[in-house]
Amino acid sequence: MRKTIFQVLIGINLFILLISLLAPLLAWGLLLSLPLLCIAVYDSWQKKHAILRNFPLIGRVRWIIEDVRPFIQQYILETDTGGAPISRMFRNIVYQRAKGSRDTIPFGTQVDTYRTGYEWIGHSLSALKVDDIDKQPRVTVGSRHCKQPYSASILNISAMSFGSLSKPALQALNKGAKLGGFYHNTGEGGVSPYHLEFGADVVWQIGTGYFGCRNDKGGFDADKFTKQASHANIKMIEIKLSQGAKPGHGGILPASKNTQEIADIRGVEVGTQVDSPPTHSAFNSPLELIHFVQTLRELSGGKPIGIKLALGRRSEFVAICKAMVELNLTPDFITVDGGEGGTGAAPLEYSNSIGSPLIEALAFVDDCLTGFGLREDIKIIASGKIISGFHLVKNLALGADICNSARGMMLALGCVQSLSCNTNECPTGVATQDPALSAGLIPANKAVRVHQFHEKTVHATVDIISSAGLEAPHNLNRTHIFRRVNQQEVKRYDEIFPHMVIGGFLKDCIPKNYEIDLEEGDARTFMPKKTLSNINMQTKTLC
Predict the structure, then answer these.
(1) What is the maximum alpha-carbon separation in the chain?
(2) Which residues have CB under 8 Å from 400's CB, separation 6+?
(3) Which 8-state DSSP code applies to residue 543?
(4) CA-to-CA distance for 481 and 417, rounded, in angstroms?
(5) For residues 179 and 448, is the Cβ–Cβ distance under 8 A?
(6) Between the chain's N and C termini, which has fewer beta carbons within 10 Å?
(7) Is 469 exposed, middle or buried (CB count within 10 Å of its CB: 0-12, 13-18, 19+)?
(8) Dist CA 392 CA 381 (whole Å)
(9) Are 175 and 158 in contact (CB under 8 A)?
(10) What residues contact residue 410 under an 8 Å CB cut-off, 6+ apart?
(11) Which residue blocks in 23-60 are alpha helix, DSSP H?
(12) For the chain, percent helix, then strand, then coil, each to nearest 5?
């Protein structure tokens, strides 16, 4: 595109120059065309804006649209009660923080506080000074089985692989994470050199394709895992069971993104679409999963090992908890991915209609771990459209210890939500393997934006916590968050999601809405005890 734009502009100038030889009055056209050419040259050489580097001159249309956006947005706010303006508001928050702009808004509340689903935190008349509490809170991840516990920030970079994102995007994320002291999750595509280049803390995610620790048949290779896991920058390992964007489907790498370099890192054939299997081959039951967790812990020298899942059948997570109790072994952390999670490529129905939303999934996972008496050994990481400080606060209050953000970090890189992640034509160079487009993203500049977004969002989180009269994130609980459930009624989170009795499931103190899940969950199989045939037989008997 850059080459085409220059060819057009040079052609226009040459045409005007030649025609002016016949009609000198037309030479005035150069006063317009030459400045346009100069602006295009400047745009292609500047390093601040990826869109201008990739689309000189015409990329400036974006800023014209941004100038009129407030008027359009206000119109939408006045005529539509839907969620679109809110998403724009949070996108603007990310841009402001990433660019170091003023982090305040004028003229009061910009959302409809009377809409169903509106949420807020109750402040305290005994609020604390934000300067009196820790501005960079950390959480230690590591159970009694772990030999190398890790101190994590409360906000980190969620899983995004080399393949879904470009090389410069990963470099910018990694350098930003190093500057801010937070971790960078590799995604399931394996550990690339760009996840390690700037020395940030890394969480290595292992999916069903076992990229980076894969044998010739596509299964798990213990020797390859041990070698990679020993890297000093890899602080934790995450076993991905499923993800919110396409749970039960497996990852998708389009053929257009599968370059030779990516194929070498993953151990697959270049230029082909790579579909990860929907399930793991290294284990077939909850008990085997927990044994696999311990195996990876031993092979890695005692580093924290966790699992990531989007909640599907609730009885399956109960089964995993039963396996932990039976074996007296636990993972060090569990990442809960909401069904609203994003991705570069997913079938429409999987994105919109499969998997539990984060709020419900997070509450259930926290309740189950508490009910089985496992919560103290396991840290919970929440992931799914987490962008603002309040997003962190409400998820921490509901049961999370740490939050991951993918969407927020992509916006900080300069993503403009062109929705072309799956086409390899991302105009900002973030989600593409086209070198002509990815060259527009300058890692050194974008790393600063990633760092600033993280720093200001964590500060906003701490600020909110201090206003609630709390000294640290771990003091948050479900009594602090309120939700409008309808036009006439407001409930606290602890009314919507009642607190669970510690160890209650082991003492027959089981809430009614958990009874069927505990009955169905079996540590020896992921399938619930009540199979379809059994249910059909029961139905026939009742009839």
Answers:
(1) 97
(2) 336, 362, 366, 380, 381, 382
(3) -
(4) 30
(5) yes
(6) C
(7) middle
(8) 11
(9) no
(10) 160, 169, 430, 431
(11) 30-45, 50-54
(12) 45, 10, 40
Using the 8-state DSSP alphabet, how is residue 500 labeled? Answer: P
Q: From CA 23, how far away is CA 21, in angstroms rounded?
A: 6
In one letter, which amino acid is 207? G
Nearest alpha carbon to residue 136 among 149, 150, 153: 153
pTM as predicted:
0.86
C-alpha to C-alpha distance for 195 and 445, rounded to whole angstroms: 17
Q: Report the alpha-carbon angle 424-429-433, nearest 5.
A: 40
Interatomic CA distance for residues 158 and 502, integer angstroms: 30
Hey, where are the domains in the chain? 2-60, 131-496
Torsions phi, psi for 533 (to 5 deg) = -65, -40
- Distance from the first to the final alpha carbon of the chain: 68
At CA 352, angle to CA 354 and CA 419, rounded to 5?
Answer: 135
Superfamily for the 131-496 domain: Aldolase class I (3.20.20.70)
Helix 167-180 with 443-467: angle, nearest 10 deg: 40
Rg (CA), the chain: 26
What is d(CA 370, CA 379) in angstroms, rounded to the nearest whole number?
12
Whether the Cβ atoms of residue 165 and residue 157 lie closer than 8 Å to each other = no
CA–CA gap between residue 400 and residue 366 (Å, rounded)? 8
d(CA 84, CA 78): 12
